[in-house]
Every structure is written in C-alpha cells, then in structure tokens.
Amino acid sequence: MSDLLGRLRGRGWRMTSQRRVVAEVLDGDHVHLTADEVHLRAAARLPEISRATVYNTLGELVALGEVLEVSTVGRAKRYDPNARNPHQHLVCSGCGTVRDVHPVGNAIGDLPEEERFGFAVGSVEMTYRGLCPACA
Amino acid sequence: MSDLLGRLRGRGWRMTSQRRVVAEVLDGDHVHLTADEVHLRAAARLPEISRATVYNTLGELVALGEVLEVSTVGRAKRYDPNARNPHQHLVCSGCGTVRDVHPVGNAIGDLPEEERFGFAVGSVEMTYRGLCPACA
DNA sequence: TTCTTGACTTGGACGAAGTCCATCGTAGGA
DNA sequence: TCCTACGATGGACTTCGTCCAAGTCAAGAA
Ligand SMILES: [Mn+2]
Ligand SMILES: [Mn+2]
Ligand SMILES: [Zn+2]
Ligand SMILES: [Zn+2]
User: Fold this and answer.
1) A72/B71 CB distance under 8 A
2) How far is the CA of B91 from the centre of ligand 4 (A)?
3) Residues in chain A closer than 8 A to B133 (CB atoms)
4) Chain A positions in Cβ-Cβ contact with residue B98 (cut-off 8 Å)
5) Hey, are the CB atoms on B126 and A132 less than 8 Å from each other?
6) Which residue of A has its CA nearest to B69?
7) Whether B132 and A119 lie within 8 Å, measured CB to CB
8) Nearest ligand, CA A26
9) Confidence class for position B5, pLDDT limits 50, 70, 90
10) CA–CA dist B32, B75 (Å, integer)
C-alpha cells in the first residue's frame, strides 16, 4: 500500500495532505474501515480534514480499483485496501470482525450452465459467517 | 408462500389486512423487493397502509426466518421470501436484476483450516455478478 | 352479539449514511 | 514568483430506516 502514493502520482493525481493521510490510514492487512472510521483516524493526524473529502477520496480510490467496497447488512459500507489480492471475507456474527480469506476451488465453475440464465458471469463474492474465538 | 399466513396464525399473529397484503406481495419466484417497492405494491391494494407497518412486518418476517434480507452495495436492502430453499444470487451488473441460483460443490469446505482463524464457520453467502442478456 | 383490551397501525419526527454544491485554497507547472 | 485548474470545505439536502405517542381494531370473553 505504501506504493499507492506513487501509483496515484503516476495517474496525474495532485498530491495533497488530505489524500496522503487517507492513503496512510488505509495501510495494513485485514483493514476494512467504514468511511467514518477513516475520517476519525485521518482527523487524528489532520484535524481539519472534512467528511466530504474522505468520501471523495474513497470514491476515487474505488473507481481506480485501488480500494474495494465491501457491502454489509444494513450497516455502513467498508473500504478494503487489499484490492490487488483477490480474496473473500470471513465475518464474525458476534462482533463484526472481518478477515481476508482465500477459498480453494472454482466457485464460478460451480454455477451450473442451466442456472446462468444467459448471463455472462464474471465474478463471485463470498462471505463466510461464524463466531470468532472471542465471541464463541 | 400462500401457506405463510397459516404459519403466522399458528405463531399467534393477529391477522390484519396490512399483514395479509404484505404477505401477498411477497409471493412468487425470484422476488427480491426493497421495502419501498413492497410498500408501493401493498398500497396499490390497500392505499392507507403506512411505511412504518411495512418495515415492522418485514422485520418480523425476517426475525421468524420466513423472509431473508439480501444486502446490496450501497442501495436499499432487498427482501427475499424464498427462505425455505437455501440458495445464492446472480445479479446483473447493468440493471440489478436478481435471480436465485444453486451452485454445486461445498463452498464451506473450500475454506482451508488455516484460514478459519479459530472461527466456527456456519454459513456462506455467494453473489455471482455478470451482465444479463438484455444488458449485454 | 357486544364488550374489552392489548396488540397493531399510523404519520411524523428523528437519525445515520451518503451526495451535492458554491466557494475558497493550494499544488505544481510556466 | 505567479496563475489557475484541481481539490478541499462545510452545510444543505437526499435516501433509507427507526422510534414514538396516539388512535384503531382482531379476536377472545361473556
Ligand atoms: Mn478484505
Ligand atoms: Mn433469493
Ligand atoms: Zn467476534
Ligand atoms: Zn441486466
């Protein structure tokens, strides 16, 4: 993720302190923050950053494919910087913790031809659910 | 789904015209309506039904396991009356159409032990994405 | 059949998440 | 150093959903 700033510069992005701070907050493994959490952590380093800028930057990163949006049931979207590594998610039904996982097998191949309804199927998202050790 | 009213009565539900109409709207295959769509269709039969009652009834049906909530990316939740038949979803990236599908294979078994992080994994949700014939 | 009562419905206020926009500020090239 | 187009800002606005006090009525009792 530290190379992200270089890639953005290469795409002609004007490098601002706000964008740098948002990119720094999105660094690490198993990171799946909501926009408000990103704003909170960014504001710890750059107190005057606005919510609108966080939303703008996250939206731009998603459009560039540098960050993935993870939808949750009825809660705020989560932003996942681990976009270069295809993966799925394991979510704790108790506390909501999210882990990146890599199932084996070919999930797309498991969809029978007669259930494709003529669609050109391109991808599949999988969410495993269960209780984490702390919640069990 | 027509048996739903009987099951609800068996659970001690007071049978009101509002609940009957919501149950009727949720009848059929490949039905994945938003709460507002349910309200719109219910109001066609019972014009004075309120949004609050639609939300209340949907929430109760979900709590009883008679209806499933399907989360979408950033849009309103969808309500799925096909809860007695375990299935996954195929979604058109163009128009948003949702079809019920039944992949073969054992998706839970495809999650390696070393990636379970000690979780008791109980279920997996899969969303296939692609373009439907009309959008392609 | 009528009465009674607590479960159900209603509309509107409220809240959380996210978008939009006019205005101001500044990164980075000339 | 100066210019200016791109980006940041904050507040209004929208969408989706929840909550509540007050009124209504389904269904059991008599
Ligand atoms: Mn992830
Ligand atoms: Mn379904
Ligand atoms: Zn947990
Ligand atoms: Zn389509």
Assistant:
1) yes
2) 8
3) 117-119
4) none
5) no
6) A73
7) yes
8) 1
9) confident
10) 13
Q: At residue B136, does pLDDT exceed 90?
A: no
Structure tokens at A82: 């681990």
Closest CA to B102 of B85, B114, B119, B88: B88
Q: β-strands A33-34, A88-92: how paired?
A: unpaired
Q: Please tell me which of the candidates B118, B130, B133 has its beta carbon nearest to residue A133.
A: B118
CA distance A71 to A101: 16
User: Which residues of B are less than 8 Å from A72 in CB distance?
Assistant: 71
- pLDDT given for residue A77 in this prediction: 94
Domains present along chain A, CATH in parentheses = 4-80 (1.10.10.10), 88-130 (3.30.1490)
pLDDT bucket at A110, cuts 50 / 70 / 90: very high
Look at the pTM and tell me if it is higher than 0.70: yes
**What separation in Å is there between the alpha carbon of B10 and the centre of ligand 1?**
43
pLDDT tens-digit map of A28-43: 889 999 999 999 999 9
What is the helix (H) or strand (E) element at residue B79, kind and residue range? strand B78-80
Residue A2 has pLDDT above 60, yes or no: no
Q: How far is the CA of A49 from the C1' of D5 (A)?
A: 21
DSSP secondary structure string for all residues of chain A: -TTHHHHHHHTT----HHHHHHHHHT-SSS--EEHHHHHHHHHHHSTT--HHHHHHHHHHHHHTTSSEEE--SSS--EEES--SS--EEEEETTT--EEEE---S-TTTTS-GGGSTT-EEEEEEEEEEEE-TTT-
CA distance A76 to A70: 9
Asked if B121 lies within 8 A of A128 by C-beta distance, the reply is yes
Query: B4: which 2 tokens?
Result: 């739903």
